[in-house]
Amino acid sequence: MSQTPTNSLEQRHKRSTKALFIWTSGWLLSLALVAFGPKFLWHFSTSITLVAIAVNLFLGYRMIVVNKQHLEALDELQRQLHMNAMAISLGVSMVFGAVYGLLEPVRLLDSTPSPSNILFVMGLSYLISIVINSRKYQ
Amino acid sequence: MKNRLKVLRAERNWTQSDLAKALDVSRQTVNAIETGKFDPSLPLAFKAARVFGLAIEQIFDDEHQQSD
């Protein structure tokens, strides 16, 4: 009747979350290396920067694959919650990103818009959407 | 879609967690199905039918069908 411990939803979820944490951490660290390494570690050596970017792209690719596997490890309600959150997050980021990019040309913003702000909005809208949708199904 | 999961579960003295384990879903999913907030997929509905040893239509009831 029940699943074996190694194949249970809980076990699968634990494994996939751990993998997602590891690859996401690796990607973030490699991104920090690309951002700060050239200035503080290797004095803008082009070849080392290219290697760092290649490593970052590889870790990013692995993070995407593992995230997909993480979604597949969820049950159908949990998957629906995450798919909804992704749809909301994508929409909010698109709408926010489009208008945010116009703020400087129309002189409502002095500085150049930073892409990291869009990533922040994307993450925040995803998180809020997950919390709201989860409450709906409590 | 109406369903008799809660009644069938109670008849067997199963908790939501027991049923969740049997169906390989989370307890939250069992609760959402029981309260009618979430309709299961066809594979999950068949799985529930297998777990309870009943036909799928003995567990799930399409409300729209009755009004036709």
From TrEMBL, chain A:
Keywords in alphabetical order, please: Membrane, Transmembrane, Transmembrane helix
Question: Which spans are transmembrane here?
Answer: 20-38, 44-64, 85-103, 115-132
Q: What is this protein called?
A: Uncharacterized protein
This protein's species is: Saliniradius amylolyticus
Automatic annotation (TrEMBL), chain B:
Q: Which InterPro entries match?
A: Cro/C1-type_HTH (IPR001387), Lambda_DNA-bd_dom_sf (IPR010982)
Provide the species name: Saliniradius amylolyticus
Annotated HTH cro/C1-type domain ranges read: 5-59
Any idea which UniProt keywords this protein has?
A: DNA-binding
Lineage of source species: Bacteria, Pseudomonadati, Pseudomonadota, Gammaproteobacteria, Alteromonadales
User: What name is this protein filed under?
Assistant: Putative HTH-type transcriptional regulator YgzD
Give the matching PANTHER family. DNA-BIDING PHAGE PROTEIN, TRACRIPTIONAL REGULATORY PROTEIN-RELATED-RELATED
Which Pfam family, any one of them, does this sequence belong to? HTH_3
Tell me one GO molecular function of this protein: DNA binding
**Stored SUPFAM superfamilies:** lambda repressor-like DNA-binding domains (SSF47413)
- Signal peptide annotation: none
